[in-house]
Amino acid sequence: MSVADFSRRSELTTERGESFLVSPLASDDADRLGAAFAGIDPWATYGYAAETLAKFLAIQEPGAQRIGFIAGGKAIGAAVVRPGWLRGPYLQFFALLPEAQGHGMGSAFLSYMESEARAARERNLWVAASQINDGAIRLYERHGFTRIADLEDLAWDGRTEILFRKRLT
Fold first, then answer.
1. Could you give the angle at which helices 105-119 and 134-142 cross, rounded to 10 degrees?
2. Which residues contact 107 (CB under 8 A, 6 or more apart)?
3. What are the two backbone dihedrals, phi and then psi, of residue 19, each rounded to the nearest 5 degrees?
4. How far apart are CA 130 and CA 119, in angstroms?
5. Which CATH number fits domain 10-167: 3.40.50.720, 3.40.50.150, 3.90.1150.10, 3.40.630.30?
6. SS3 content of the chain, % helix, strand, coil (to 5)
7. What dihedral do alpha carbons 60, 66, 48, 154 form, nearest 10°?
8. Are 163 and 126 in contact (CB under 8 A)?
9. 147, 164 in Cβ contact below 8 A?
10. What is the CA radius of gyration of the chain?
């Protein structure tokens, strides 16, 4: 069975006709994005330090693809995808800078993930979102993801992460 590969450079287009690139995340972009993401939710509420997020984004880890989102020559977001996780890719981390939100890039990326997973004959797409991240929850549900589990105290005591699945078959 093949596994979807999200690590190659691809140009994506939003429904509004805006283009952006997805490509392997550069380490200098990981530092800048980590600092920015530490100031936005859910990471700000959870108290994640900029250095912690930057290190997570920069680390080279087998089985995890670090992806950068580039628009206008500038890194505006990042994702970490684990291909082949429970018969399909798991979107472990996904964030866009505030100025990049609301332009359809999240939707375009989810559509891209689905297309690549289907081409690899995967059966599922997976993602988790914090209970406090209403925008992410709406995005995933709008794209056909179904809540399948509440994971209490996973990322932070007293908070719930919601595991979502989208069946592809």
1. 50
2. 14, 15, 139, 142, 143
3. -105, 150
4. 29
5. 3.40.630.30
6. 30, 35, 35
7. -90
8. yes
9. yes
10. 15
Q: Residue 2 has what pLDDT? A: 65
pLDDT in tens, 89-117: 999 999 999 999 999 999 999 999 999 99
Per-residue confidence (pLDDT) for residue 140, from 0 to 100: 97
Peptide bond into 42 cis (omega under 30): yes
Residues lower than pLDDT 70 in the chain: 1-2
Q: Residue 168: count other Cβ atoms within 10 Å of its Cβ.
A: 16
Distances (CA, A) of 35 to 43, 67, 166: 11, 17, 31
How many helices, marked H, and strands, marked E, lie in the chain? 5, 8
Q: Helix H segments across 3-159?
A: 27-37, 43-46, 50-58, 105-119, 134-142
Query: What distance in Å separates the CA atoms of residue 124 and residue 145, rounded to the nearest whole number?
Result: 10
Which position has the token pair 């800078």?
97
- What predicted TM-score, i.e. pTM, was given to this entire model? 0.93
